[in-house]
Amino acid sequence: MSFSRRGSDLRRTIALSALVALAASYVLFAGGCDRNNAQVVREEDESHFVRGKEELKKGNFMEALAAFTKVTEKRRDAPESHLDLGLIYLNNIKDPIEAIHHFRKYLELKPDNKSEQSRRVRQCIDTAQKQFLASAPGNPYDISSETIEMENTMRKIREENLKLKQELAAANAKIESLENSRIKIRETVETRAGASGSSLTIRETVATTSETTASSYTVQVGDTLSSISRKAYGNPSKWKEIYNANRDKLSTPQSLKPGQTLVIPR
C-alpha cells in the first residue's frame, strides 16, 4: 500500500511539473518575451519618419527627403516612406525617374491592387512617366517602345550604381580629409616662411596646393540637382552646394538644360 501511494505521488508530481512548464511556455510566447527578438517598431513610429513628416509640414522638402531616405535605408518594410519620397521627387524636385522607383517600391510592399491608395499611386506613376516623356527630346507624347526601354535602362543603371555611389562618397570624404591636411601644412609652412622672410618657400608651398578642388559634370536628359548630387556625393541633399556654385548659369534649381556643364564643388 505504501509503495502504491509513493507511485501515485510521483505521477502527480510529474504531471504538475509538466503543467507548470507548459504554462510558463505559454506566458513567454504570448507575452513576446523571447530575448532573441527585439520589439518591432512601426514605421510610423521611427524617429526619422516622424521628423520627415514634420519637415514636410514646414515645407522643408530636402530635409524631409533626407529623413525618409534614412528610414528606407534602415528597414526594408518602409512603404509609407517610399510613398512620401515618390511624392517629393515628383512634385517638388521634378525627378520622375526617382519618383517612379519609390512608387513601385510602395506597390511591392503593399500589393493590394484593389485599394484606393494603390490606385492613386498608379496614377502618380502615370503622371511621372508623362513628366519624364515631356522632358525627353522629340514628341513628348510619342510613347514608343524605345522611350519606355530607355526609362527602364536608366532605372537599372541607377540601381546598379548604388554601390559605386557609396564608394564615391567614401572616396570624396577621404579626399576632403587629405585636402584639409594639406591646407594645414601649407598654413604652417607659410607661417614659418613669414617668420624667416623666405618668400620663395611661400610661393612653392602655394604652388603645391593650387590644385583644383572642383570637378565638372555635363547635364543629361532627366537630370535634376538632386540626382546629380546623388551621383557626385552619394547624397541627394547636397544639391544646394551645386546650385550655389553655378548661380551664374542657373536662375532657379529647376532651370537645368541637357548639355550644360556644371561645377561640382569638392
UniProtKB/TrEMBL annotation:
InterPro entries: Bact_Kbp (IPR052196), LysM (IPR018392), LysM_dom_sf (IPR036779), TPR-like_helical_dom_sf (IPR011990). It holds the Pfam family LysM. The keyword Hydrolase does not apply. Residues 147-188 form a coiled coil. The keyword Coiled coil applies. PROSITE patterns: LYSM, PROKAR_LIPOPROTEIN. Residues 215-264 form the LysM domain. Keywords: Coiled coil. PANTHER family: PHAGE-LIKE ELEMENT PBSX PROTEIN XKDP, POTASSIUM BINDING PROTEIN KBP. This is LysM peptidoglycan-binding domain-containing protein.
